[in-house]
Amino acid sequence: MDGLRCGSCGASFPMDDPRWRCSCGGLLDIRFTARFDPERIARRKPTMWRYREALPIGNDAAVVSFDEGMTPLVPVDIGPGGMFLKLEQLFPSGSYKDRGASVLVSKARELGIGRIVEDSSGNAGCAIAAYAAKAGIRCEILVPESTSPGKLAQILMYGAELTRVPGSREDTAAAAMAAASTTYYASHSWNPFFFQGTKTFAFEVWEQLGFRAPDTLLLPTGNGTLLIGSFIGFSELAEAGLIDRVPRHVAVQAKRCAPLYEMFRDGLGSPPSVRGGETITEGVAIAAPVRWAEIMEIVRRTGGEVVAADDGEVEEALWLLGRRGIYVEPTSALPVAAYLSTPSLRAGTVVAPLTGHGLKATEKMLKIAKKG
Ligand SMILES: Cc1ncc(COP(=O)(O)O)c(C=O)c1O
Ligand SMILES: [Zn+2]
């Protein structure tokens, strides 16, 4: 039956229950049979909502959309071969998080929710604030004090209430959870509707490759919102008989804050506690990803890996992309850095998203540019 299901205790809840976690504290997932009608899909506008029957929003009038998605998938010749890059930085708020925000805020509107709260390293906050503004939903965004000024300006201009929290990314998450006790938690890591949006990444890649799956996906991973969404999407395509197998999902972390990489490398049963060092890849600097077990299971089941790149490798990847006319924020260059440093990632058709726009991180980019 369709609905919300707890991954810890197995409890089920109706799809319209405005809860973001189980009463046992466990993470919720969505049970929903995605349907695909290739003829109808082909007739619709080139947006992520063309896969309408695969998205768990009942009421068309609730949909909050800027006609986003269907970002270009372009072959790029980099070093030892070629890969496809999906230009996710071209979303309305400048990052792929708009996929999740569009579906999550649509759900909030369908539920009649008037106020939401979200915490973010920046981009998810921008995306939720943008879609909340479009939906006329009041929105509070909490970010760590270190978040790039470009993202802060964006959140403010969308009219959200912005709170900068001193301390680590985890301190911000704790403050948001406290605020969420009285409002709806539009969290990109907890709220399962976010992943129902990020899964459209998989549908688009499938369609853009001529209705086939790639061999390998390289995904920058902190909380894993794109990695998990991609896995859900490709799994739904496989369940519908549209692809033979789910591609290999490779998680790419930032070496200075890499709990999942260390867990994978050292064969540990759970993520080690890491002290997140400063990194230019602020988007994935997550010391304690709540869905770590799900991420590791996806990597294992698809025959993937967890790899990590350091800031120096990311800077090189940024230069390489820049010289090909592509300007993205540092976090987004992680998959390219991993591709260049790790030969085992290069077999077959390789796809990576470019997750966030370079204009979001002007200060960081300028420092790199000046170094030459
Ligand atoms: C530009 C960019 N890329 C990748 C990510 C990684 O997303 P996640 O933490 O959900 O794995 C983020 C997260 O904020 C981001 O901002
Ligand atoms: Zn439970």
What would you note in describing this structure?
There is one protein chain. With 372 residues, this protein is of the alpha/beta class. It has 2 domains: 73-95 and 195-371, Rossmann fold (3-Layer(aba) Sandwich), CATH 3.40.50; 97-193, Rossmann fold (3-Layer(aba) Sandwich). The chain has 13 helices and 13 strands. It has helices spanning 38-43, 97-110, 123-135, 149-157, 169-179, 192-198, 200-208, 225-239, 259-266, 292-301, 311-322, 334-341, 362-371; strands at residues 3-6, 12-13, 28-31, 73-77, 82-86, 115-119, 138-144, 161-165, 184-185, 216-220, 248-254, 306-309, 350-353. The strands form 3 sheets. The chain has a 6-stranded mixed beta sheet. It has a 4-stranded parallel beta sheet with strand order 8-7-6-9, with helices on both faces. Helix 11 (311-322) packs across helix 12 (334-341). The longest helix is centred in the middle third of the chain and has 15 residues, at 225-239. The termini are far apart. The structure holds pyridoxal-5'-phosphate (PLP) and zinc ion. Zinc ion binds at residues 6, 8-9, 11, 22, 24, 26.
Q: What best-fitting shape do the alpha-carbon axes yield?
A: globular
Class of the largest domain in CATH?
Alpha Beta
Question: How big is the Rg?
Answer: 19 Å
Fraction of residues in H or I helices: 25-40%
Low-confidence stretches: none
Fill in the CATH topology of the largest domain.
Rossmann fold
Which H/E pattern describes the elements?
Answer: EEEHEEHEHEHEHEHHEHEHHEHHEH
How many β-strand runs?
Answer: 13
Distance from N terminus to C terminus (CA atoms, Å) equals: 57 Å
| Largest beta sheet: strand ordering | 4-5-13-10-11-12
The CATH architecture classification of the largest domain is: 3-Layer(aba) Sandwich
Q: Count the DSSP helices.
A: 13
Bound molecules: pyridoxal-5'-phosphate, zinc ion
Averaging pLDDT over every residue, what do you get? 95
How many strands, which pairing sense, and closed or not: the largest β-sheet?
A: 6 strands, mixed
Structural class: alpha/beta
The figure for the number of domains is 2
* Portion in strands: 15-25%
